Amino acid sequence: MARRRDDLPLDVQQALADAEKMMAADLSRNIHSVGFGKRTLDGQPDLRGHGVIFTVAIKGDRDCIQSMSIPRTLGDGMVSTDVIQAPPAEIELLRESDFLTRFMRDPGGQNRNCHNTPIPGGVEIQPTGQRWVGTLGCKVVRIAKDGSLRHGAITNWHVATGEVGQRMVQHGGSSEWFGEVASSPGIVFGGTNYVDLAVLDIQRTDGPYAPITHTVKPEQLTLGSYSKEISEGGVGTVVARDGRTLGRIIDGRCSQIGATVRVGYGGGKVALFKDQFVCTRQGGEFSASGDSGSMVFEYPAMRPFGLLFAGGTGTTIVSPAEYVIELGRVHSFQ
């Protein structure tokens, strides 16, 4: 099954490249993303098959969309296109000012509670000294600068601030930090990105952690243990995750692969990401503010699928697990 852009047939790769050129030429930035996935008809999967999916601004009617001159086919007429109207993708940090609103909406939720160490993935975390929270992805084995293997964990760059040495705590700014940022590929504004990632060092043996050698365990809060083997799934794969805000979700689906996406980072900053997954959930949301950093798994096999980092109404952007390995100096999951 095709998973990344290089896995797709050459005519589809060319069609995506042509779509990217249209996206780059769209100075009004009405085209938010292009990717390869299942075409739709009146919001339902279309039996006509797969094609290049353009996601455009939700404002405007079909005449406005047609004025963008999106062709019916690309790649010498061999690849069909489809258009979806949706809001732009944004990073979804949950700020301190949102805490009360979220609490009143859902005062429970074990994904927001403190947990004894070693803690599971899928729970709320926060950088010390900052006013936002996100989600702890999962435990990994990371490659240190000296080439040695050390216990680690992952979340998003924008959750952990991405600064080496930044300490991370659990719910409510707990005074005891469980890990610190060891490395990150960072975010390139004005360039190309493939993953929003911070890799944490979680080896603590002092204070309340002694004699534990790592503070995060290779389990998700409700989904349990996961495989070391990366998923081979692509379009149509059922996906699941634990997260800070929406908790346990087991009925998501990968709807697009190889997507090029503009992602808003606030303050007018927009980053371009390539070769991403777009995940959706019929009849509900796959993610919400505060779920940034969640690890997404193929379900029920529980093979690592990708790292969640952004979304808009009805869509969630997930970076393939391969980029966590390749760009994060991660040796393996677990």
Automatic annotation (TrEMBL):
Residues 213-310 form the Rieske domain. One of its GO terms (molecular function) is 2 iron, 2 sulfur cluster binding. InterPro entries: Rieske_2Fe-2S. PROSITE patterns: RIESKE (PS51296). This is Rieske domain-containing protein. It comes from marine sediment metagenome.
